Structures are given as C-alpha cells and as structure tokens.
Amino acid sequence: MVKAIRYERTGGPEVMQWVDVEVGEPGPGEVRIAQRAVGLNYIDVYFRTGLYPQPLPAGLGMEAAGEVTAVGAGVTHLKNGDRVAYVARPPGAYCEARVLPAAALVKLPDAVSFDDAASAMLQGLTAQYLLRQTYRVQPGQTILIHAAAGGVGLFVCQWAKALGATVIGTVGSDEKAELVKAHGCDHAIVYTRENFTERVKEITGGAGVPVVYDSIGKDTYKGSLDCLAPLGYFVSFGNASGPLPPIESSEFSNRGSLFFTRPTLFSYMGQPGALEAMAAELFDVLSSGKVKTNIRQRYALKDVGEAHRDLEARKTTGSTILIP
C-alpha cells in the first residue's frame, strides 16, 4: 500500500483526504513509477471544486517526476531506474507511486532534476504551446501576460524575453512586480492600483499588442480585448477569477477582427509525436539556462490542503511542488 490524496465530494481544501491505496503491477504498455516530486497547479483547484467535473471518488494532480520501478509487457523505450516525468490525465499525481501508460512519460536529461521537472511539465509545456504554437511570438513584438508572477507567467516572461520580445505583465503587488522584472518582464503593471488597459496603450504608444495571454478570466476579459491591436489574438487559458461571460462575436469584430482561442495543453500534446517534441524544446531551454524553474514553495504532499489554500489566496508565486 502507498499513500495518496483522494476526494469523494467537491468543495474546499478540506475534501482532500490522505489515504492508503493499492498500486498494482503495470499491464501491457504501462510502467509503475515511484514519485519524487509532484507539481501543484491551479487546474487542480478547478477539479477539486467541480468547475472541471470528473467521476468521484477521484485523485488530483496532473504532473510529477520520479523513477521507473516496473515495466509492463511491450514497453521497450523505458527500463527500471529511468528518470521520467509526465503531465497526464486523468488526475492522480498526488500520490507516492502510480501506474501510467508508458506513452505518457518522457525521459529526463541529466541536467533536469526531479523537482524542476515536476514544476515544469504542465507550466513549461503550457508556455511552449502558448509562445511557439498558439501564437508564435517573434523578435521585436510586445506581448501581454496576465498573472505574470504565477508559474506559467514566469515561464512565459523568461521564454518570451529569450525570443526577443518585449514583455508586459500584470501582477497584484509591488513584491510580485520586482519578481517578474527579475525574470524577463520589461513592464510590470500592478493591477490593484493601475488600469492595465491604459498602461498597455501608454507603453505601446496606442498601438496595442498582437497577443494577450490571459489565465485570469472574468475580471480581465474586456480589458484584455481593449489591449489588442487589430487582428490580435486573445488567448484564454484559465479562469482564476471565474469563467468568461457569454461571448459575443461583435466584441471581436468591432475591435479590429480579433482572434479568440481557448487552447488546452492536451489538444497540443495529443498530436502524433507532439509530446516528445514539446518536451525536448522545454528541456533544451531549461538546460541552456535561458529559462529557469522558479520553485518558490515546497509542501509535504500530505499537507496539500495548506498548499491549495495558499494558491487560492494568491499567496504563492512561481511554481510549487509537493514532496511525497
């Protein structure tokens, strides 16, 4: 038996329970891994609260890193002792060990630690598809990223800067403004006292930006559209303040034929060969030092309730990992 977090009903952090679970032997095409570090992400809150429904009882957590301890029939690219990481569905990474399809795992290069991998798979691969696929940022462009001090935000700030872009980020405090400036953000807007739309117009000389990456949702939706230049991209990839209001097409046509997209990591990863290619690019920028993980908080996995409370209260910055 190993320990894992399970929940039987949706609700606050108190619904998560630290329980014994059975982990069997891997079947054909599967491997068992002993987990060394687990990532914490806001999507975990969405599942726990029921915003993203799943059959209950269920586990939580989308990403982790560890070592292969058993290999099922037909698995040829992995062996016992291999260092691996994953971001996978269904949720269930909040555990000491688990069995997963071998196809969901990627090998870790020596230069990437378990902790870094656990903090980077979901957030780093999200930054990869946002910057390199959803809207391919070019040198000399100016972009806007909301929640710049969060896990994905700090990846985007660093990576976009490495690509030669000028980065505008919104944050909730002066402390967070200093943090993002130290990680590639050229202009930090403290939204609690500044109108971010007006500041973006000021920074861009009234031109607006070609892309807004928005994980906040309801509170920033209209303002984000007003930041865009004609033919700009509104990329909505989260709902931290609540879901977007009903979408009216005139909001986009009246502002200059804007584009709207609601991408998901698993849509991009689901293409043949995509996971390996995306992970290779992520590991390359991590190994080169162009992008660094920003693990700012560590909690014991059994104390994940405290971690969720801090995450929802916006007390965390950068990435958070859970140690089994």
From TrEMBL:
InterPro entries from the UniProt entry: ADH-like_C, ADH-like_N, ER, GroES-like_sf, NAD(P)-bd_dom_sf, QOR-like, Quin_OxRdtase/zeta-crystal_CS
GO MF terms held by the record: mRNA 3'-UTR AU-rich region binding; NADPH binding; quinone reductase (NADPH) activity; zinc ion binding
Stretches assigned to the Enoyl reductase (ER) domain: 11-322
GO cellular component: cytosol
Keywords (A to Z) from UniProt: NADP, Oxidoreductase
Keyword Transmembrane (UniProt): no
PROSITE patterns in UniProt: QOR_ZETA_CRYSTAL (PS01162)
Protein name as catalogued: Quinone oxidoreductase
Species per Swiss-Prot/TrEMBL record: Trinickia fusca
